[in-house]
Amino acid sequence: MAQIIFQTRQEYLQSAFNDIAKIISDHGRPTLDAFVPAFSTQKCLSHLALVCYEWSYDHSLIDAYLETYKAANKELQENMGDC
Predict the structure, then answer these.
(1) 6 part of a folded domain
(2) Count of structural domains, the chain
(3) Is the residue at 78 inside a domain?
(4) Cβ 34 vs Cβ 72: under 8 Å
(5) Which pLDDT tens digits describe the chain residue by residue (83 residues)?
(6) Domain that holds residue 50
(7) CA–CA dist 37, 65 (Å, integer)
(8) How far apart are CA 32 and CA 77, in angstroms?
(9) 35: helix, coil or strand?
(10) How far apart, in Å, are the Cα atoms of 19 and each of 4, 9, 23, 38, 75?
């Protein structure tokens, strides 16, 4: 296994935020695949982005995941009604 070395604590934490966002997004994917809105995933990503923002970390990757879930949830809710 390759060793990953970060130059600063900030780089490490940024990587951790991005990895956690991917894990959360991947975890919500089966819900969308079942044609059910993944509102809990959207809320979790939204909160994670807020924490990154408040701690002055880059939240652009998290925002990309979040926008994907917002759009998918909105589309499912409009087409399927309330679940």
Answers:
(1) no
(2) 1
(3) yes
(4) no
(5) 789 999 999 999 999 999 999 999 999 999 999 999 999 999 999 999 999 999 999 999 999 999 999 999 999 999 886 55
(6) 34-83
(7) 14
(8) 11
(9) coil
(10) 14, 15, 6, 19, 26
